Amino acid sequence: MDYVLKTEGISKIYGKHTVVDHVSMHVEKGNIYGFIGKNGAGKTTFMRIVAGLAAPAEGQMELFGSKELEKQRVRIGTLIEQPGLYETMTARDNMEIIRRNYGITEKNAVDEILEFVGLSQAGKKKVKNFSLGMKQRMGIAIALFRNPDFLILDEPINGLDPEGIKEIRDLLLKLNQEKQITILISSHILGELSKIATNYGIIKDGALIEEFPAEELKARCRRCQKLVVDDVARAVAILEDKCHITSYDVPENNLIRVFESLDASWVLNRELIQGGINLKESYLAGQDLEGYFMDLLGGETHA
After folding, report:
1. In terms of CATH, what superfamily is 3-218?
2. Strand-pair partners of 60
3. Helices then strands (H, E): number in the chain?
4. Domain-by-domain residue ranges, the chain?
């Protein structure tokens, strides 16, 4: 695997409180990694550690396959918490200050980055008159100024209206697909995150409890009828021959998941029982994305 970020046992302790608890995360090159957890779960602290803004109490980290972290961090762009902007200055003037601070000599660099994030027409507008979505795009522009290979974004769509959310979502997809930038993003707007994320990491009480690809999440949330039987082979034969079922799987012993004819589950039950199958359980399962994560995390998922 070609990992942009790989951590092992990263922890952070404030006083007697463990904020990040032995987190081992794996972000592959090219991924958009959705980082999900409740308020206070440790997301922001972990991102600050990766960016070098906080020191871990213990654990190991590699960036781009290297343990020379400071050398590799020049390849990272970050937007953690609110971007620091001069409100009474224009977007262009803000970016000119940053260009000089970064030692970037190309005079057209500011115009290019403003155009890329969709702010070329707002270059002369004072930041204090920006919408929240425009300020977030400014923050992303700053994070992109040194052409990073890895972008870390903490709640970039929090508080945005639907139009602003779509603008940021389209921008992130553009960064990932056109510039091949790997992205680690936290968000509690799970429906939107599911439109762009290729992988997920779930953090609860400071601990990373699961990592999995988006395809697996779709399978977990897929609606189905679950059948617990005493003889899977015979039950499958009945479903195919008598009920003409073709969309099913057998994820474990004695369990069949049927993904069609969900409005006629009683017919399946009847045919199995008449066929001599001991039908121990039969129930509908699966849920939407929000419901899945609420069950996994225990309550609200607001980050």
Report:
1. P-loop containing nucleotide triphosphate hydrolases (3.40.50.300)
2. 8
3. 11, 14
4. 3-218, 223-285
